[in-house]
Specification:
The protein is mainly α and 512 residues long. The protein folds into two domains: 5-199, Fumarase/aspartase (N-terminal domain) (Fumarase C, Chain B, domain 1); 207-270 and 281-507, Fumarase C, Chain A, domain 2 (Up-down Bundle). It is built from 20 helices and nine strands. The protein has a three-stranded antiparallel sheet with strand order 4-6-7. Helix 1 links the parallel strand 1 and strand 2 (27-30). The protein is elongated and about 90 Å long. The two termini are 31 Å apart. It comes from Microbacterium protaetiae. It catalyses: L-histidine = trans-urocanate + NH4(+).
Amino acid sequence: MTSSTVTVGVAPLSPAQVVAVAREGARVEIAPAALERVAASRALIEQLADDPAPHYGVSTGFGALATTFIAPERRRQLQASLIRSHAAGTGAEVEDEVVRTLQLLRLQTLASGRTGVRPEVVTTYAALLNAGIVPIVREYGSLGCSGDLAPLAHVALAAMGEGDVRVDGQKMDAATALEAASIAPLVLAEKEGLALINGTDGMLGMLLLALADLEVLLDTADVCAALSIESQLGTDAVFAEDLMALRPQLGQAASAAHLRTLLGSSPIVASHKGPEDGRVQDAYSLRCAPQVHGAARDTVDHARLIATRELSAVVDNPVVTLDGRVESNGNFHGAPIAYVLDFLAIAVADVASISERRTDRALDVARNRELPPFLAAEAGVDSGLMIAQYAAAGIVSELKRLAVPASVDSIPSSAMQEDHVSMGWSAARKLRRAIDGLARVLAIEVITGTRALDLRAPLQPGPGTGAVRDLVRSSGVAGPGHDRFVSPDIETVTGLVLSGAVRAAAFEGEHA
C-alpha cells in the first residue's frame, strides 16, 4: 500500500493517479469545493422531484420505461430496485484493480457536481476505497452502452450494504464489511441510482491499466529485439538515425533509438562489422523491429489521447448542466474507448507475432548463425527450447483471435430502446488477456536471447543486454545445459517482464 493521496474534484484525474489508486492502494480525498458543487446540483434535483411533471430518472422509470411516472412515495424503492436488478453480472470475478478503477472513476464523476447526487454518496464512495472494500464484480454483464451498467451496479449494491465484497482478499457480505469500517449503507434518493451506473468507467479503467502495462512492455519488446539481433549476429546499421529520419514516424524513431543504444556498444555486434561481413541484410523480424514496435507506440499514444479526454468527461444521463438544466444525452456510449481498445489489441498481437518469429529464428540451425539446434546442449537427447517456442506460437495464435474487434458488434437491448451498443467492456476484457499473452511471448524471447548470448562466449554482449542476461540468471533461470523443467522459468521471466525489471536492467545497465 502506498502512502500517497489522490485528491478528487479539483482537476481531472491523471492516468498515473488512477493506476496509483487501483494498484498501489493510494488513498483518496474529496476537495471541499467539489462537495459544495455536489450540494448545489442536488438542490436542483430536489426541486424537480417536487415537480408534478415527469423528469427522466428523477420521477420516471428507466430505459424503455422512461415514460412511466413514479409517485414520490415509491422513488426510493425505484432507486434500490434499479441497482438490484442491474447487478446482474455473471461469470468469473473481475480483478480487484479493475474494480478499484470502477470505484474511483465513478467517484470522480460524482464529485463533478453534474450528476445530482447528495454529498453523502460521494463521501461514501471515497470511504469504500479507503477502507479497501472491493465489491465483487462479474466478468459478463456490460454491453458498453448506457455505461458499464452491471459492473457499476455491483459497486453501488455494495455501497447500499448488499451483495458480496472482498477485503484483503477475503470474501464477505457487504453489510459486514461496511459495519467493520464504520460506513453507513447508502439509502438512495431520486436520480442517484442512475448516477451510480451510467458511466464508461469500466472500459476506461481497463484502458488506463493497459496503457500503463504497454509503456513497460513496448520498451521491453525493444530490449527483446536487441537480444535477438545481437545473439543472432545481426546488424545495427539499419537503425541509423538518418535512415529512420527518412520515414518520420515518432514511434519508429523511439524504438530505433533504443536499439542503437543497446547494440552500439556490443562486442558481439562489433565482432562482425565491416566489409568482411557477408550478410547483406537481416530478416524482417530483426530488421523491421522499429517499424512494428514503433507503430504500436503510435497506437498507444493515440489511445492515451482518447483516455485523457475521457478522464475530463462527465458521463451520466440525465446530466445537470453548468447553467442548471437537467438534460438527457448519449455521452455514455462507449465507442471512443471501444475503438482504441480494439486498436491496441491489434498492435499487441503484432508485437507478439514479430517477437515469436525472432525466437523461432534463434532455434533454427539453418538460420541462427551456427548456434545449436533449439539451443540444446545435446541435440536429440535434449530438446532445448523447442517447446517454449510452441508456447509462444500458441499464444500468438490466441492473440490474433483476440485482435478481432469487439466494437463492430452490437446486440439491441432494453426492448430496442438501446438498439446500438459499443461492446467496449468486452474489448477491454480481451485486451487484458492479450497483454498477459504479450508479456509471456516476450519472456520466452528473453529466455531464448539470453541463452543464445551465453552460447556466443567468449564474445561478450553489450552492457544493457548483458545486464538482462545477469538478471535472468540471478533469478534462478539457468543458462545453456541439459534440459530442465521449462515452465517455471517462463513464469519467473514473465514476472520480470511485467514488473519492468527487464526494462530497467537493460537501460540502467547500458548507462552504468
